[in-house]
Amino acid sequence: MAKMNQFEKIFVNSRIQYYLHKWFWFGSIVKRLPSTLYQNILEIGTGVGFTAELLAEKYPNAHILATDFDDDSIETAKSRRHSPNIVFQQEDATRLSFTDNLFDTAFSILTLHHIHDYRQAISELTRVVKQGGDVYIMDIPSASFNFFHFRKSIVPGLFTKTELMTIGENFGLKMEDCGGKYLFSLHGKKL
Predict the structure, then answer these.
(1) pLDDT at position 160, please?
(2) Would residue 37 count as lying in a domain?
(3) pLDDT at 4 over 80
(4) For the whole model, what pTM was predicted?
(5) How confident is the model at residue 16 (pLDDT cuts 50, 70, 90)?
(6) Which structural domain range is residue 156 located in?
(7) What pLDDT, on the 0 to 100 scale, is given for residue 18?
(8) Looking at residue 34, which CATH number applies to its domain?
(9) Is-contact 114 157, C-beta < 8 A?
(10) What is the model's pLDDT at position 155?
(11) In this predicted model, what pLDDT tens digit does every residue of 123-150 receive, in sequence order?
(12) pLDDT of residue 150
């Protein structure tokens, strides 16, 4: 796992990022999510909780467990006002502490490129989701990185959309390409 540097944290946790996330990036996924399906939701890489909050708006009766490797981000998230159905917890996405088949769905939104062993993180997401459950991934392919993302020490996970689809299929997900080239989204159904 890799923690974000201070510059990244300032940008990623800003209100500008929140509105981009809500109106364009993750907001496009939220619109396509089923309305009453999920009761137990996991998110990895929550940061300060932007994605978790959007999920809580969509699923006000669901239990949402929002995790991040960075304990500072988790503490910041806990200190902000969030929906009461969100719980924040420090976790390593490559070694989740949860039992198998626990969650209805799991989300990795703009997270995998921060993880050295992103294959293991996908394996863990698949493991903790119930049979027939869903895994949603939104991320940036290696070809899209800007000048801040030029070193492997800054962006440890460099991959293509096709590579992530193949990894998901190898771990037992039926993968669907939900679109996007420079910022893509994938949906995996656990078989």
Answers:
(1) 86
(2) yes
(3) no
(4) 0.87
(5) low
(6) 6-190
(7) 65
(8) 3.40.50.150
(9) yes
(10) 55
(11) 999 999 999 999 999 998 766 555 454 4
(12) 47
The terminus-to-terminus CA distance of the chain in angstroms comes to 27
Q: How many CB atoms lie within 10 A of CB 116?
A: 13
- At 149, list the tokens: 């993302």
> Is residue 1 included in any domain, yes or no?
no
The number of folded domains in the chain is 1
Mapped to the 3 state alphabet, what secondary structure does the chain carry?
Answer: CCCCCHHHHHHHCCHHHHHHHHHHHHHHHHHHCCCCCCCEEEEECCCCCHHHHHHHHHCCCCEEEEEECCHHHHHHHHHCCCCCCEEEEECCCCCCCCCCCCEEEEEEECCHHHCCCHHHHHHHHHHHEEEEEEEEEEECCHHHCCHHHCCCCCCCCCCCHHHHHHHHHHCCEEEEECCCCCCEEEEEEEC
